[in-house]
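Please, structure for the following, as tokens.
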Amino acid sequence: MSVRIRQHSLSIFFAVLFVLALIGQSIAGLISFNEEQLAHGAAAVTWLDFVTSSEFVVDVAENWQSEYLQFFLFIFATIWLVQAGSPESKEVGHEGIGSDEEQKVGRYAEPESPSWAKATGWRQTVYSNSLLITMGAIFVLSWLAQGIAGHTVFNAEQAEHGQDLLTFGEYLLSADFWNRTLQNWQSEFLAVGSMVALSIVLRQRGSSESKPVGTPHHEGAVSAE
């Protein structure tokens, strides 16, 4: 069992961090929400009521959608765009989807290759783009969840102040929705861009996200030897 845990330790590590952070967010969010409730003369809610509320869902969803948009765009961009010297990029001159032989698909598949990589037609096409498709689907679903939950929260605040309610379509065009959306997008784009650029000249010994410490700046981690 210890060997299997070691083999999957990176995934386990981040799964545990995710669960702990989500629980922490729910507790801190509950305390903050109930403080506002009491300040407005309303009743406090239970933890279960809070984590199933639109207030909690919108905060979670708006972070998820921006993270998966980041991955979606980075995966897509690195097919065609390169950055000389960055370990986050392919070598200059290797842009594109690659040949069947390079990708080990169809008749070039290995005995242990996934079955859909050995297939032809739509199955190979779907599997060849399955990571991008999945990231894009999660982004769209979490963005939709943000919109639905945000719409509920926004209209609740509007009603509380005696202001007009918005339809879902009107909310998607509102400043509130795009403020929630863009404040997350800009931070994700900055983080990815910084990682790509800084990894050209900076190193972290032992990390797969960094070039070997002594590698010249102009070489990427996957430069041909």
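The longest helix spans residues 9-39. The chain is about 65% helix and 0% strand.
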